[in-house]
Amino acid sequence: MSPFMMGLTVFVLAIFLGVELITKVPPTLHTPLMSGANAISGITIVGALYCAQTGAVNVANILGLVAIAVAMINVVGGFLVTDRMLKMFGRKG
Amino acid sequence: MTNNLIPLGYLVATAFFIFGIKRLSKVRTARQGNQLAAVGMLLAIILTVLDINLKANGAVDYRYMIAGVIIGSLIGAIAAIRVEMTQMPEMVAIFNGFGGMASALVGLSVVWRAVHHQMAQSHYTGALEVHTILGGTDVAVSTVLSLLVGALTLTGSLVAYAKLAGKMTGNPILLPGRHVVNVLLLGFALAVAGMLAFGSYPGITVLILCLGVLAAALILGVMAVIPIGGADMPVVISLLNSYSGIAAAMTGFVLRNNLLIVSGSLVGASGLILTQIMCKAMNRSLANVLFGGFGGDSGDSAAQSAGYTNITEAGPEEMAMMLEDAESVVFVPGYGLAVAQAQHVTKELGDLLEKRGTKVSYAIHPVAGRMPGHMNVLLAEADVPYEQLIEMDDINPEFKTTDVAIVLGANDVVNPAAINDPSSPIAGMPILNVHEARTVFIIKRSLSPGFAGIPNELFDYDNAIMVFGDAKKVLTEVVNEVKEAS
């Protein structure tokens, strides 16, 4: 199997898995779900890190640097704000 | 064996994400779920740095990486700590955009490096199979797709943010010929994908084509979101949430990285499901939301207030008196509650009534507010126990035995025209049946219509009483009245 077919298989199966998982999330948690999804979409950080691995000043590296920063905003901001919200859901009124 | 260690570690990180999302299915375990996902992310980042170091035999310059991580972490942390709960829709909108932007930048960086590499290696200026530059036909296509989806998610999200934050009109902006322009832009991007997949071009041509796709996608994102009204933002944010995930998955195809593909698809699926739920709750198709040009913010109030014949008006004192005698009260929050920041005073009134022995609950319509679950977060912030937040299908049978329903800045989601008038633009939309309660108080600044731009039949009902004013102000007065009486 080519790497592409392998990737496509993983992609389709992961979508099915995602649908199964997400349909079980209650509506009351939909906002934290979305901000948590923001954080997870910051996984592009992995790709971004590969793009900025030399010290040479060139366009590819600078694009990588910006990509790292932006992805990291999502990762840190997303997980923190989700935690902040879920903490409020947890406490008893 | 050592080649498999990093992918194995990525697999563990993927498992953390999956368990994390699984734990989001219960309020009790949700916080832990989010933390699990964060651990997965940390693991992924550490493994990546390790992998880069291994492959380069230690000859890595970390300055760019460290700078990026520090800048991003600081901005993210400050944003997360400072944001008001009423602003969550704006924050999610802009984060969707950042997700898309990161993917587009990675795609562009890969192209740039490949082209640069080719030109540096030889002075060969003739045609070269592009997939030999980018590493294969599939990589060429996914690179174009990650540029396309990423960039349109960025500008689309920025427009959505501007609409939500009131920095631009919430009304649909309908440019003439927009469908033709959109089709042309999309067609161009897909044509480039096809060209790069099957043709051969010099590196510089590849770069120019990719920059062209980027520009087309940036325009497309703006064009796609400006015709959508402010009140349809729950659908738009959900859809852009999904796109930001798809863009990450496309980047995964570019880099042949399964962790990116799986995480991206999980986010993509999540956004899609929320989109579907939102559309269903408005009884509209996704196509109608995206292309219908429907639903701005509240229209011209003076022109629209005409047509009501049976308006009953009351002040906070009368409302307080009625509440003192009520045995059951249901609050119905909407976007107006968020605008007025009235969640805390609502909870205060609820507590006061509960102490007097009144049964208090909160009815949540799925599209109340500007994003899925918006009202739940606001009320959670005010310490309302989530057991008191009741979904539409569960609360609707209860209204018949409810003494007082209080509508706080909700409009179309309580308009009985959706049931009674088949010619109404919102006909068939599921609503909260507040009109079945013995008395309905509607706290509202004026008689202006909601996003659908139509009069609300409810205001003319005999059991409906309008209390004009800002929700926070009115409720504060009611709270004082009730306190004095007890």
Low-confidence stretches of chain B: 298-305
The number of helical elements of chain B comes to 19
Give the overall shape of chain A.
flat
Helix content of chain A: over 70%
- Helix tally of chain A? 4
- What's the pLDDT, averaged over the residues of chain B? 89
Q: Which chains have the largest interface?
A: A-B, 84 and 115 residues
List keywords for this structure.
heterodimer; A: 93 residues; mainly alpha; 77% helix; 0% strand; flat; B: 486 residues; alpha/beta; Rossmann fold; 3 domains; 6-stranded parallel beta sheet; two-stranded antiparallel ribbon; 19 helices; 62% helix; 7% strand; elongated
Task: Describe, in short, the structure shown.
By secondary structure, chain A is mainly alpha-helical.
Question: Any overview of this molecule?
Answer:
Chain A is mainly α and 93 residues long. Chain A has one domain. Helices cover 77% and strands 0% of the residues of chain A. Chain B folds into three domains: 1-82; 86-291, no CATH class; 301-485, TPP-binding domain (Rossmann fold, 3-Layer(aba) Sandwich), CATH 3.40.50.1220. Chain B is built from 19 helices and eight strands. In chain B, strands 5-4-3-6-7-8 form a six-stranded parallel β-sheet. A two-stranded antiparallel sheet of chain B has the order 1-2. The longest helix of chain B has 34 residues, at 88-121. At the A-B interface, helix 1, helix 2, helix 3 and helix 4 of A face helix 1, helix 2, helix 3, helix 4 and helix 9 of B.
Secondary structure layout:
The complex is a heterodimer of chains A (93) and B (486).
Chain A: H1 3-22, H2 30-41, H3 44-51, H4 59-90
Chain B: H1 2-23, H2 27-55, H3 63-82, H4 88-121, E1 128-129, H5 130-134, H6 137-164, H7 178-198, E2 200-201, H8 203-225, H9 233-255, H10 258-281, H11 286-291, H12 301-304, H13 316-325, E3 328-333, H14 335-340, H15 343-355, E4 359-364, H16 374-381, E5 389-391, H17 392-395, E6 404-408, H18 417-420, E7 439-444, E8 464-468, H19 471-485
Parallel strand pairs in B: 3-4, 3-6, 4-5, 6-7, 7-8
Antiparallel strand pairs in B: 1-2
Helix pairs in contact in B: 1-2, 1-10, 4-6, 4-8, 4-9, 6-7, 6-8, 6-9, 7-8, 9-10, 13-19, 15-19
